[in-house]
Structures are given as structure tokens and as C-alpha cells.
Specification:
heterodimer; A: alpha+beta; nine-stranded antiparallel sheet; 9 strands; B: two-stranded antiparallel ribbon
């Protein structure tokens, strides 16, 4: 095919049935980090970020004092926040979230001996619902109010937040990776629903970083798409 | 101790909350200046010594604000108002360069069940940033996003964006390490070949 405006329009018609109004993702690692090094120009020197993007980084906060360290900045596409025990890359609402994987893989390809103890593959989506009725129905189906109406006399009880936990595999192993799904009324989209997924992996202290990066490499896209499937399924189920 | 979900989840929504719950991640991590420092300095000093304490030192110590930096988890918000609704996402691999564009193999990330496709990207229609142009060569990987961008003023426009994948170059140390490993594997393979089946 030849890419031109007409073709783009053609492809946009393949749109997914449920497209979030606001879409984002993040990858979080816990462990032991040296925040002072994670400055925009460091990412440029390692060929992890384009130079122009790093030069235009905003809200840079770098504190490098003994026992109290942080590096936090935003670029056009990402927000990167590192403390001594937490590394996070998050996409911004106006960008494609998938490349945050490349930032993580690139960073820890360079810092290959970083000790890490947990990994989170996260996605967050704000959906607009077609009607107020559908919006209420989602909350009512996920959290029926019958039990609450007997004790909360003040008015109509409503669901503010729901967190569901499930093992990622069918084993009974308590150390198995866990999936957390949070559903809330959206604070960003009128008549909207917010979905947040968190695939959480815990590791023994001596787990090689390469093992963790293999999970990021192999699982990221699946986790990202799975989040959308969960949200689409729940939204459709609630409407029935 | 927060549940594991709080350890590796990242954002949550922006909520106006009056709860006194203060999550683990919102701990105070640094405090500049101790306002008591000047008082402590004065303690044990005679009055004349206190007067001799350089006025600029006093004012500097007093002027330094007490700052508590609280790296709360960032929130996924509309921010400056721009949002992108991704309707289609491909991952592409450049297969050939032309003077007016490049060819690529596309893998559909929106619907991974779709087969790969070949596409010709024409520079007349596709903008590659200055930084990304140096990555444009056979084998390089990029993302092609087709979607709808909403501006702060509420305007909606279709966008098509190509962004190349960045990955760190191999360091000399990594190359040396890989070379050593390759050499030992080669040696092992050659030794294996020399062993006749009857000897196994």
C-alpha cells in the first residue's frame, strides 16, 4: 500500500469499538536506584530519548542529597520519576504509550546490575459512556447497592472505587503475578468511567535484572492489550 | 504496608479528597534548611559574638525556605488539554530506503491477529523528525499511530504520526563480553563436532 491521506482515512475506519478518551500507561520498578543520574541529558547520551525531546524537558526536579533523592521531569511524551526505591516511566495523555517499554528496556540495558524487587505494567483509560443511565448501570452492576440501602439512609449510594485482584495464572502460588483492576467514575471525562490495570510481579532479591526485562519485553504489549479487553468486556457486560 | 497494587501501580485519578489516608509513596523525602539552625548556632554564644555573626549569614539562613518535597504519584490528566485517541497502531520495520521515502513491514498492534503488511512511506505525506532521521535505515523500528487529537480549545483533528524506536548503542564492554561468549560457544561447538557419534 502507499501511504497517503486517503489511506490513513481508510485505516482510521478500522477503529476499535471502544476507544478511550484519555489513554495512558506506565511501567514501575521498585528496587534500588540512584536518582541523580536519571536526568534528561543522560537519556540522550544513552540514545534512549531524542535530543530535542530531552532539551525541551519541563518541570525538572533533581534532588541529590544523602538519604533524600529524586529526579522527576516531563518530556513531550513521557514523565519520568525516580526515587531511591522506585523508578517510573509514564506516558502523557497526548502520546502513544507503547514506547515507554523502550525507555525501560534501554535504561536497564545500560544499568544492567540494578537490583529490582517488583515490576508493574500499568494502563489507565477514561471512557465516555453513551448515557447517564449506562454510567449508573456500570456502577450498579459492579457494586450492587441493595445491602447499602438498608444502612445508608442519606440518599442514593454510589460506587466511587472498585479494586479487583486476580492471579495472572491459574496456579495457587501466592507469589504468582497479580492483576489488579480498578474502576471508578472518571474525574476527567464527563459521564465517564476510569479503568486502571496493574500487572504486578514480585521478585526475590537475587533475581537477575535480565529476567525482569525479559518480562517487560515479552509481556508489555499483551498486558497493554489485555487492559483494553478487560475494560471493553466490563463496559459491554454492564450494558446488557 | 500498602498492598502490592500500590507498590507498582502508578497513577490513580486526580481526586479532591479530604481523607487523612496518606499513602506510602507520598512520604516526605527531603527538607531543606532547619529553621532551628540559627538558634542553635546562637546558643552558647555570648551577646557580642551573636552580634558579630555576619548579618548576611543571618539573613541567608533565615531567607532559606523550608521546602518539603513530596513526590506524589503523577496523575493521568488532560494536562495542557491535548489528548490523543489512538485508533490504529502499527509497529514497522524499515526494509528499504528510497530518495522520496522508505518501505517497511508493518505489524498491526491494534489487532495483532491481522497479518503483517508492506507499506511505502512517502516523505511527501510522512514527517520524520530531525532526530529520528538519523535512525532511518533498514532494520530500524518505528511506531505509526493514527488517531484523533483534541486540542485545549476542543478542536479535533486526525493525526498520523511516525516515531522511531530508540535503543542504546552497545557499549564497548558489552561488545567485548558478547565476543568472549561467542568465542567460547564457537570453541564448544567445534569440540562437539570433533566428537564422533561412537564416542558419545
Amino acid at each position: 500500500m502507499r501511504l497517503n491521506g486517503h489511506r490513513v482515512l481508510d485505516y482510521s475506519c478500522r477503529a476499535m469499538s471502544r476507544v478511550p478518551e484519555i489513554n495512558g500507561a506506565s511501567i514501575v520498578l521498585t528496587g534500588s536506584f540512584n536518582p541523580a543520574i536519571f536526568q534528561p541529558q543522560w537519556f540522550v547520551r544513552q540514545n534512549i530519548l531524542p535530543e530535542a525531546e530531552a532539551e525541551a524537558a519541563k518541570n525538572l526536579v533533581v534532588i541529590a542529597q544523602q538519604g533524600a533523592q529524586v529526579c522527576d521531569f516531563e518530556t513531550e511524551r513521557f514523565r519520568i520519576q525516580v526515587t531511591t526505591d522506585r523508578f517510573m516511566v509514564m506516558s502523557k495523555a497526548a502520546s502513544n504509550p507503547v514506547p515507554i517499554r523502550d525507555v525501560v528496556l534501554g535504561t536497564f540495558f545500560v544499568l544492567e546490575h540494578t537490583p529490582a524487587t517488583a515490576l508493574g505494567l500499568n494502563r489507565h483509560m477514561h471512557f465516555h459512556l453513551d448515557s447517564v443511565e449506562e454510567w449508573h448501570q456500570l456502577g450498579d452492576r459492579l457494586a450492587p447497592k441493595d445491602g447499602w440501602k438498608g444502612v445508608l439512609k442519606g440518599g442514593r449510594p454510589g460506587m466511587r472505587s472498585l479494586l479487583i485482584q486476580s492471579s495472572l495464572d491459574s496456579s495457587e502460588n501466592p507469589e504468582a503475578p497479580q492483576l489488579y483492576v480498578k474502576v471508578e467514575p472518571s474525574t476527567q471525562v464527563k459521564q465517564g468511567a476510569y479503568f486502571e490495570t496493574n500487572e504486578s510481579y514480585s521478585f526475590a532479591k537475587d533475581t537477575p535484572l535480565k529476567t525482569i526485562m525479559d518480562i517487560v519485553r515479552g509481556r508489555w504489549e499483551e498486558a497493554y492489550n489485555h487492559a483494553a479487553e478487560i475494560a471493553a468486556y466490563i463496559l459491554d457486560w454492564a450494558r446488557k | 504496608m500498602p498492598p502490592k497494587s500500590l507498590l507498582t501501580s502508578s497513577t490513580g485519578q486526580e481526586n479532591e479528597s479530604t481523607t487523612d489516608y496518606r499513602p506510602e509513596y507520598a512520604k516526605t523525602i527531603v527538607r531543606f534548611n532547619q529553621p532551628i539552625a540559627l538558634d542553635a548556632l546562637k546558643q552558647g554564644m555570648s551577646d557580642p559574638d551573636q552580634k558579630r555573626l555576619a548579618p548576611q549569614a543571618q539573613s541567608a539562613a533565615l531567607a532559606t525556605p523550608t521546602v518539603m518535597l513530596d513526590p506524589r504519584r503523577p496523575k493521568l490528566t488532560k494536562g495542557n488539554g491535548y489528548t490523543l485517541q489512538i485508533r490504529q497502531l502499527w509497529e514497522g520495520t524499515v526494509t528499504r530506503l528510497h530518495s522520496d521515502g522508505f518501505e517497511a513491514r508493518l505489524s498491526d498492534k491494534t489487532n495483532p491477529n491481522n497479518p503483517d503488511e508492506q507499506a511505502l512511506f512517502d516523505f511527501e505525506y510522512v514527517e520524520v523528525s530531525d532526530d529520528d532521521q538519523r535512525l532511518l535505515r533498514p532494520g530500524s523500528v518505528f511506531y505509526w499511530t493514527v488517531g484523533t487529537e483534541r486540542t485545549p480549545a476542543g478542536q479535533v483533528k486526525n493525526v498520523s504520526n511516525v516515531e522511531f524506536r530508540y535503543y542504546p548503542a552497545w557499549t564497548q564492554g558489552a561488545i567485548a563480553s558478547a565476543s568472549t561468549r561467542a568465542a567460547s560457544l564457537k570453541e564448544w561447538l567445534e569440540q562437539s563436532e570433533r566428537i564422533k557419534p561412537a564416542e558419545i
